[in-house]
From TrEMBL:
GO terms for biological process: ATP synthesis coupled electron transport; electron transport coupled proton transport. It is a multi-pass membrane protein. This is NADH-quinone oxidoreductase subunit L. Keywords: Membrane, Transmembrane, Transmembrane helix. Its main location: membrane. Coiled coil: none annotated. It comes from Nitrosopumilus ureiphilus. It is found in: Membrane. One of its GO terms (molecular function) is NADH dehydrogenase activity.
């Protein structure tokens, strides 16, 4: 594989790799100045720089298709010999294009969605800063540089979640006045931003601890260097530190990708503008954790092939993903807010990706799970960004985040209706015509064929999650577009506000992604096979991971489906049919009233309440990590600082000193005979001591 040496000048391919992340940072740098001259111009500048960054990423596609790489380094901190650089290999090039092109479309969407906002310059600054940070993560050739990008996307996420920092009621999430275990389930943008910042920082601390632990033994942060000499891994394994170090790195991925148990911040992140939700919390930043696992996973597996086993790492990744997938999918079934449904769905689908990446390391065919997880990342980025932008259009037109305030919109918003169906079918995994079907089927097959002891439990969770996904997606579309108009819409129309389609700049971006979801889906099997072959070459060339070519077996499937696992395919079809069927019965056909159904049985009512209350996990987190520490702090202040220190120690010392001063003062009589008497008594006392 082609590798460029340390130094300058840049070659054309290498320059593109640098420009992918430098251009967005440059746009962010000049944005305040552009904003002072013309706020309207800031949008054009952001779109233009986002396009140039995406084109730079696209120029490297031939390198990826040839399974080659571009690696270029410059001296970063000369005193300690630390180098910085870019590593453009098939993994990072594909990811850079996903981030680049979806970011470009969302920038176009934002020109319409954010039109007229008085803080628009600040919005564009943070959006471009985020894109630059995300691309820095993707194209960095070492962990330390990745961490700089990692903190950059975290900072931008905080700033954009709390973008509407004036905390108006319309910008909150949750239901006003609603409580769970005494905790208010209603959050302002500033609260949500702080929550996201703190919870992701828990993962970040774990990540930097893992990085430094590896650096302590390896003396480098570089991905190529870590693979080139594995003596560090042998030394760490001998001391039982190898798996903990990688698990700590994975902790960073858990935080950024909102995986259990650090998943609760993602729901409140919906206080940000929908363009932010589409870019950061659906298509890109939350995928950073998956990308990190995709970057370090092959290294861990290659160490295992060399006799340095770390299977526990992959087991943890797989089970964290599986638990998250099911846990968040169930919550998507009952949430009344459209953006929250999509947020639950995002965390759940990322769980699928993590499950695939974990299962990859627990099977002999590492490339199968690896390809399936990354293919689902690409697929999900398209249809989920489309769904979020479409949801933003609905919020923009209807003026409410609650799906109960919508209904019957398919006639007035025909384009949005069609595109949400197309993207929604991708999320549900509609058979043979969507990217989501092929990527989910690949995950099912990878889990089922892995042959490890956890295969069947993980497979059962994957299939059940697929059923639930199809159900809540159908529920969302049914509540928004079918049935009668809500009282909220009727009131709007009475006041002269007519429901209409979103503006051209808004529906074209999510329309493109929805069409791609179907278009690529029609050739999805070929796409998956091409990606599989590309990663076979990449993993073998970069990590020495070989792939066994299975003997061709006769299959009961038609010729165009040869190569698919019949059981995985059957599970995919059944999950889609059951999920969409139940969703149709309750929310499109309206044959059964879901409220009456839930209230008809104490078991259904209890389950619904538990899930609606987020399995009480969010409330428990607040009690354990917010309320209890505050009580402890107040108790320490009241009974120790205020009583023991202020009243006890401080006042006690003051009074003791005052009393001592009075005693000493009382001895100062001014009479010579008294002083002589004290002097004589003291002298006599000393003589007696010496005699004894």
């Amino acid at each position: 594989m082609a590798t460029e040496a340390l130094g300058l000048p840049f070659e054309v391919g290498t320059l593109s790799a640098w420009l992918v992340w430098i251009l967005p940072f440059a746009a962010a740098l000049i944005m305040p100045g552009i904003g002072k001259m013309s706020k309207n111009a800031t949008g054009y500048v952001a779109v233009g720089f986002a396009l140039m960054s995406a084109l730079s990423a696209a120029s490297m596609i031939p390198v990826a298709l040839e399974a080659q790489e571009l690696h270029h380094q410059i001296m970063w901190i000369e005193a300690i010999g630390l180098k910085g650089g870019v590593l453009a290999d098939p993994l990072s090039i594909i990811m850079a294009n996903v981030v680049g092109w979806i970011s470009f479309l969302i920038m176009i969407y934002s020109t319409g969605y954010m039109k007229g906002d008085k803080d628009i310059t600040r919005f564009w600054f943070w959006m471009m800063f985020f894109i630059g940070s995300m691309q820095l993560i993707v194209l960095s050739d070492n962990l330390l540089q990745v961490f700089f990008g990692w903190e950059g996307v975290g900072l931008a996420s905080y700033a954009l979640i709390s973008f509407w920092y004036r905390d108006k009621k319309k910008d909150h999430v949750g239901t006003e006045g609603r409580t769970v275990l005494g905790m208010l389930d209603y959050y302002s943008p500033t609260h949500a931003g702080m929550k996201a910042f703190i919870m992701t920082k828990v993962g970040d601390v774990m990540m930097i601890a893992g990085m430094l632990l590896i650096f302590l033994f390896a003396g480098t942060f570089g991905f190529k260097e870590l693979m080139g000499d594995t003596a560090w891994a042998t030394a760490m394994s001998a001391q039982g530190l190898l798996v903990p170090a990688f698990v700590l790195l994975f902790g960073g991925a858990v935080g950024k990708s909102a995986q259990f148990p650090l998943n609760e911040w993602l729901l409140e992140a919906m206080t940000g503008p929908t363009a932010v939700s589409a870019l950061i919390h659906a298509a890109t930043m939350v995928k950073a954790g998956v990308f990190l696992v995709a970057r370090i996973g092959p290294l861990v597996f290659a160490l295992g092939a060399a006799g340095i086993l770390a299977d526990q790492f992959f087991e943890i990744v797989a089970w964290v993903g599986a638990i998250t997938a099911l846990l968040l999918a169930t919550q998507g079934m009952v949430s009344p807010e459209i953006k929250k449904v999509l947020a639950y769905s995002t965390g759940s689908q990322i769980g699928y990706m993590m499950m695939a990446m974990g299962v990859a390391g627990l099977s002999h065919q590492y490339v199968d799970g690896y390809t399936a997880g990354f293919f689902h990342l690409i697929s999900h980025a398209m249809f989920k960004a489309s769904l979020f932008m479409a949801a933003g259009s609905l919020l923009h037109i209807v003026g409410s985040r609650f799906m109960s305030d919508m209904g019957g919109l398919r006639k007035q918003m025909k384009k949005t209706y069609a595109f949400m169906w197309a993207a929604g079918l991708g999320l549900m995994g509609a058979p043979f015509i969507t990217t989501g079907f092929w990527s989910k089927d690949a995950i099912f097959a990878a889990v089922y064929e892995s042959g490890n002891e956890w295969a069947m439990p993980l497979y059962a969770i994957a299939v059940l999650t697929a059923v639930i996904t199809a159900f809540y997606t159908t529920r969302m579309i049914g509540m928004v577009f079918f049935g009668k108009k809500s009282k909220h819409i009727e009131k709007m129309e009475e006041e002269g506000h007519h429901i209409h389609e979103a503006s051209l700049s808004m529906w074209i971006p999510y329309g493109i992604l929805a069409v791609l979801t179907i278009g690529i889906g029609l050739i999805g099997l070929s796409t998956e096979e091409g990606l599989h072959e590309l990663f076979v070459d990449y993993l073998e060339e970069s990590f020495g991971i070989t792939t066994e070519h299975a003997a061709t077996e006769t299959s009961i499937l038609p010729e165009f489906l040869q190569g698919l696992n019949p059981i995985a395919l059957g599970s995919s079809l059944a999950a889609f049919a059951i999920g969409i069927g139940l969703g149709y019965i309750f929310y499109i056909g309206r044959w059964v009233d879901p409220v009456r159904f839930v209230n008809s049985n104490i078991f259904f009512y209890a389950i619904h309440k538990i899930i609606l209350n987020r399995w009480y996990l969010n409330a428990i987190i607040y009690w354990c990590f917010v309320v209890a520490p505050l009580w402890l702090a107040r108790g320490v202040f009241r009974y120790f600082e205020k009583t023991a220190i202020d009243y006890g120690m401080n006042d006690g010392v003051q009074k003791a000193v005052g009393w001592s001063a009075k005693v000493v003062q009382g001895t100062q009589t001014g009479v010579s005979q008294s002083y002589l008497f004290v002097f004589g008594a003291g002298l006599l006392f000393v003589v007696l001591i010496l005699l004894i």
